[in-house]
Structure formats: C-alpha cells, structure tokens
Design a protein that fits this description.
Length: 549
C-alpha cells in the first residue's frame, strides 16, 4: 500500500516493518500535528495562564537540569514573553536540591523570585510535597511534565501531562519540551478567542521548533508520527539557517554543519554539550545559551559548554574504568542486573556510565554516587522488556523503607537511598531481574532490514533516507548481507577499515571501535553512509555487527 502511495520500494519495506501503515503517517507538515485539545486539562491551563497574563501575575519556571528541561524552559520563556507574560526561571542545582519541585526549591524560588505562579517544565508530576509547600505559601503551581505519575498526583492548580490518568492524547511520547509547546499553542488560541491577538498579530510559535526538535531527540523519547513532525519541522528550520543563536553556536562549536542537520547531530553533538552543564555545573548556563538573542554571547557560552563537556568526558572515562574494575568478576551468565557504587563517583555523570555498562553487558544497570549526609543517588538505564521505573516500584513495595525517592520511565530512572542500604537494594533489584527477565531477553539482538538490492548502494538513495526522521523507536535502516572480505586493516589503533565485495561490486566499510580481524566471508549488518573525502563523496558501509558466514 505504501508503494502504491508513491513511496520508494525499499523505504516502503523499511516503514512497513516499523509498523507504519499509512502514507499519511509520513506527513511532516505542521497541519498534521495532533490537535492540542486532546491533552487533558490543556484548555484549563490556557484559560488560567491567559487570566494570569491579563492580571500581570509574576511567573517563575522551574526547569529540570537536562537537555529536555533546558529546551522546555527556553521554549516556555520565549513563548510566554511573546504573549505578554512577566516570566523568569530558576533551575535547581542538582547537587544541592536534587530533582524536581522539592519544598526546598519552592522556598528558594519564593525567596529569590517571589512569584505568584510556579510553572514546572519536564518535572513536577512526582512533586507532592513541593506542591503542598507552594500551596501553603499561596503560590499556584502549573505542572507540565511527561514523566510517569505515581498513584497520587500533586495538588497543583493544573496538570498537563500526556501520561496522567484519563488523558486520551494519542501520543504518550511527547517530551517535556513538546508538552510546553502544546500548552503555548492552546494559550495562543485562548488569547485569539479573547481578541488579544488575531491571526496576523499573534506570535509565531513555529520559530520555537528548533528548540522543540533538540529537546525531543536528546531526551530519547519514542519518535512516533507526532514527534517526527515536530523534529522534522525543527530540522527543516536548522537546515535553512532559521534557528536561535544558541542552537547555531552549538552546531559550530561541535564542528557540525547545520545545512545538513540530522537527528544524530542533535542527539550526539548538541544534546551532550547542553547536558554537560547540568551534569557538572549549573544548567542555567545551558538555558542562557538558548534564550539569548545575542550571537556573540551565544558563541561565548557554547564554547564554555564545550569545555565542560570535555571535562565530562574525562570524568566519565575514569568512572568507566573504575566501574569495570568493580565488575571484574562479574559473571553475565549468573546475573540479570548490575548495581554498582563507588564513593569517588560524580553524581552528574553516573547516568552516562550506567548507559555504557548497559551497552557493554546488556543488563539493566544502576550506578550510584555519594550524595550528602550518607545518602547515595542512583541513575539507571534499562534494556527492552524491563520497565525500570516499575522495577524500582516493586523493590520499594517488597522492601519498604529501602528506597527514599524514585521516578522515571521504562528505559531510564533515578533513585535516592541510604548508603548502608546498597547491598540490600542490589539483592532486591537482582531478584526482580531474575523474576522478570528470560534468558532470551538477556541476549543482545541486532534487528536488520535484510539485504539491500545492489541498485541502491548509491548516494542518491542515502540522500533519500537522510530526508526521513529516524531515531528512538523508529530506527534508521540497518541492512544485512553476506560479503567477501577483500582486505582489512586497523585504523588509528581503534577501528577496522574493510574492503567488502558482493556480486562483483566492491564497497568501502568501517567498523568503529572494533579491531578483531574478520574471516574471509562475513555476514554483515550495516548502515549506508556517504563519506566525503577530498571533495569526492563515496558510499561507505558503517558496520554495526558482523559474524563469520
């Protein structure tokens, strides 16, 4: 059916295997976005915020300290200001205050900003105590979040979250920045209804889509049809040079070309540089990068963020070495999970280390670093089929009092507990792993799109694929075929450079981070890449996995 709808035959096969059944789901036009009305309480939020703007109420945004939180904060600030709001922001320093709208943050916000209203972005759904404290002080709270709620919701003025109970919004995968963007759409419509703006004078919200795309990709939410529209529109703006100075500066400092911007750039080049600020330092630097309209200031901040990211990489490499020492006697066959703690670790970087260990051992992994006063903080990453937040929920019910606080999603979660509880936690977490995970689930599987016809090993076909938005939950195509290995050599001590042959045609290939020699014939899983060298663009295969044929 997709082929009949005019889709390229290979792409039709690739899309169909990812569950895409209708040509309309490929639309990347803004008109195809799901309407805001489907989000529970969004009309209430729009009316409340419109009233607050009319009454000149003071608002303060409380942001999370990752890339999604920073972009959500920048989108909220820019959007609300454009609609006439008096609004400022505050980002909790993660080392002093931890995550979310805590009572301490409410106190700090009241002291420093004295707002009438607190708006949370990318956090707040678990902040029962914080909202209670705000209510006690006579501050209204508007929560915009996408994290999974617990059994009880905070007593906020309004909550907009596609994952809250009874919300019928079809896309449950909006990132925090996506939720905020939707709230702005609804608020603008409300202000039009009131005659504050008309279609000609209303603020243009599509200017914010570069930020929405960046936060959505960096937060690794599933790129369903709705998120793909948001990302495609943001990337289109970047490629056309229509982006905020901070986004342009991040491209430049990362050495990437915005003319050919891709989700890969956002997730692996821009995102980590913004995230580094929140990991090691203070995310207000990252937010300032995104809210300034001064190109010189944006460039100066982007360079600072780049330095912080280099430091983050050093710390991460040391922590990873230590982690592997801790896991020296780790027997993958005997364990379903990994929990590891080191008193010398940096709590801003444990999430990345958990991610690397999960990649290496393919086990749900939680790494812990010391907090204050005998508390430790854990950050976890999971594998498909093991819902991390639900696993922590089960541990907290099986061993009451063990975990102080926890929250998150299926694939990533965080928690706080006493240092002396670590061993009991590791045992309880492993018990859940043993109960939930089968041997088959602990085997790493490389899913491929099968062979690629010879006619499509071309730059034209690569360009066609680059026109699509690939990412989390909509994986870029990985083809698989048998090749003769004509030659191989090790490049820069770290990578394997190959010349492969199939049906009399030869292809350059590279296997990054791999140095073990291959046999004469190999079954190779690969992605296609256009490699530019000395002004000539040639097709190259990026090897994802290979085994003897």
């Amino acid at each position: 059916m997709l082929r009949q709808g005019g889709v390229h035959p290979v792409l039709a096969r690739v899309f169909a295997s990812r569950g895409l059944l209708d040509v309309r789901e490929l639309s990347s036009e803004l008109s195809a976005l799901i309407a805001p009305a489907g989000l529970r309480h969004i009309d209430q939020a729009a009316v409340y915020l419109a009233d607050a703007i009319a009454a000149h109420k003071k608002m303060t945004i409380v942001a999370d300290y990752d890339c999604d939180g920073a972009t959500a904060c920048a989108v909220a600030l820019r959007g609300l200001r454009a609609m006439g709001a008096q609004v400022d922001f505050i980002v909790p320093n993660r080392f002093e205050y931890g995550y979310g709208l805590t009572p301490e943050i409410v106190e700090l916000t009241a002291r420093e900003k004295n707002p009438d209203i607190i708006i949370t972005v990318d956090n707040g759904i678990a902040s029962i105590d914080g909202v209670a404290e705000a209510n006690r002080r006579g501050i209204d709270v508007v929560i915009t979040d996408h994290h999974l709620p617990a059994a009880t919701l905070p007593a906020a003025r309004v909550i907009v979250n596609p994952n809250q109970p009874e919300c019928g919004f079809p896309s449950k995968h909006l990132a925090g920045v996506g939720v905020v963007f939707y709230v702005l759409l609804a608020l603008r419509a409300e202000l039009r209804r009131r005659g504050v703006f008309d279609a000609a004078t209303q603020p243009k919200l599509d200017h914010l889509l570069d930020l929405v795309a960046l936060g959505t990709v960096a937060d690794v939410v599933k790129l369903d049809a709705n998120n793909r529209i948001l990302v495609a529109q943001g990337i289109k703006r970047m490629r056309a040079g229509r982006m905020h100075p901070g986004v342009a500066a991040l491209f430049r400092v990362a050495g990437r070309e915005s003319r050919t911007a891709s989700p890969f750039d956002l997730g692996f080049a821009l995102g980590p540089r913004l995230n580094a600020a929140g990991r090691l330092d203070d995310m207000s630097l990252g937010i300032e990068c995104l809210v300034t309209d001064d190109e010189g200031r944006a460039w100066a901040i982007a360079q600072q963020l780049n330095e912080i990211n280099l430091k983050r990489r050093e710390i991460e490499a040391e922590m990873q070495d230590t982690a592997l020492l801790h896991l020296d006697d780790f027997q993958p066959t005997a364990s379903s999970t990994i929990a590891v703690f080191d008193a010398g670790w940096h709590q801003g970087v444990i999430g990345i280390v958990a991610s690397r260990l999960k990649e290496k051992f393919f086990r749900p992994t939680i790494t812990f670093a010391p907090g204050q006063d005998g508390w430790i903080k854990g950050s976890g990453r999971s594998i498909p089929g093991f819902h991390l937040r639900d696993a922590l929920d089960l541990v907290s019910k099986q061993v009451p009092g063990l975990i102080d606080k926890f929250g998150g999603h299926a694939m990533a979660a965080g928690l706080t507990m006493r240092a002396e509880a670590f061993d009991s936690f590791a045992a309880a977490f492993e018990a859940v792993g043993k109960a939930w995970l089968t041997e088959a689930q602990l085997e790493r599987i490389v899913e491929t799109d099968g062979p690629l016809e010879d006619a499509y090993y071309t730059n034209d076909f690569i360009e066609l694929m680059a026109g699509q938005v690939w990412g989390q939950g909509f994986a870029p195509p990985v083809f698989c075929d048998e090749f003769r290995v004509v030659s191989q050599r090790i490049l820069k001590d770290r990578h394997l450079k190959l010349l492969l042959e199939k049906n009399g045609k030869r292809y350059d290939a590279i296997w990054f981070g791999h140095t073990d020699a291959m046999g004469e014939r190999a079954r190779v899983a690969f992605r296609l890449d256009a490699n530019e060298y000395n002004g000539v663009t040639k097709v190259q295969l990026l090897v994802e996995h290979a085994e003897p044929a």
